[in-house]
Amino acid sequence: LSLYFKEKEFRKTMDFLDEKMKNKYFGFSMLEKALKKNDSNYIETDQFFTHTMLFMFQVSLFSLYKKKGIVPSMVMGISCGEISSLYISGVLDLDTACDIVFLRAKLLNDTLDKEGKMIGIFCNKNIYDNKYSNLYNTLEQSLYISPNAFVLSGKNDEIIDLENRLKQDGIKYSSMSLGTRFHCSVQDATKNDVLSLDIKSNLPTIPVLSCANLKYFNENYKYDQNHLYENIRNPCHIQQSYEKI
């Protein structure tokens, strides 16, 4: 948060958004929590905190760049970061974007479970597919970052077994204790709640691409509750999105 103390425009936007979220949803300041809290587990697992702070930070960063005369020619957001990209591009107004930040966080908090976790693996995907994938029943791909980096979700026992095999084979990995499993079948539980929404959106003033399905938002593909569900449920195609850009 060094930008918060160094850049007036960044701080002004952060304070404005923090006050808005405080008054409309939480009754307390998430920014104060960020400045005072020294609990990485809390930061990683509380979706209200992570969703709100990421949205505030990303929008404030855009505001800072805009103040300096830098405006993007296109935008793309990953996972919950898509909400800020939709606001920045004009697809969502601020109130709707804030509503979705809160709702998405609530839905993901409701899927918190102790039976599973996520793991980042740093090897060629073909190596994993050929050597390890047929050993497990619950592992699902949640993020495809590059040909040599991807994230899986699954049950604890299978993740632990995979970690042991990767360690024995000298393959780098990173275990993620995030409290839930993102972008996989665990999020099927959110479907009915999401699809019951009636989300209104606009056409973008800045081109915006979704890494949930590699589609640009336009007259033929508008943001709505169906896309929000795809954003929650689908794997993130990061490498493929960069290639499409």
Description:
It is a single chain. The protein has 245 residues and is α/β, with parallel strands linked by helices. The protein folds into two domains: 2-111 and 187-244, Malonyl-Coenzyme A Acyl Carrier Protein, domain 2 (3-Layer(aba) Sandwich); 116-178, Malonyl-CoA ACP transacylase, ACP-binding (Alpha-Beta Plaits, 2-Layer Sandwich). Helices cover 51% and strands 14% of the residues. It is built from twelve helices and seven strands. The strands form two sheets. It has a five-stranded mixed β-sheet. The protein has a two-stranded parallel ribbon with strand order 1-6. A hairpin with a 2-residue loop joins strand 3 (140-146) and strand 4. Helix 2 packs antiparallel against helix 5 (47-67) and helix 5 (47-67) runs antiparallel to helix 7 (94-110). The longest helix has 21 residues, at 47-67. The chain is globular and about 50 Å long.
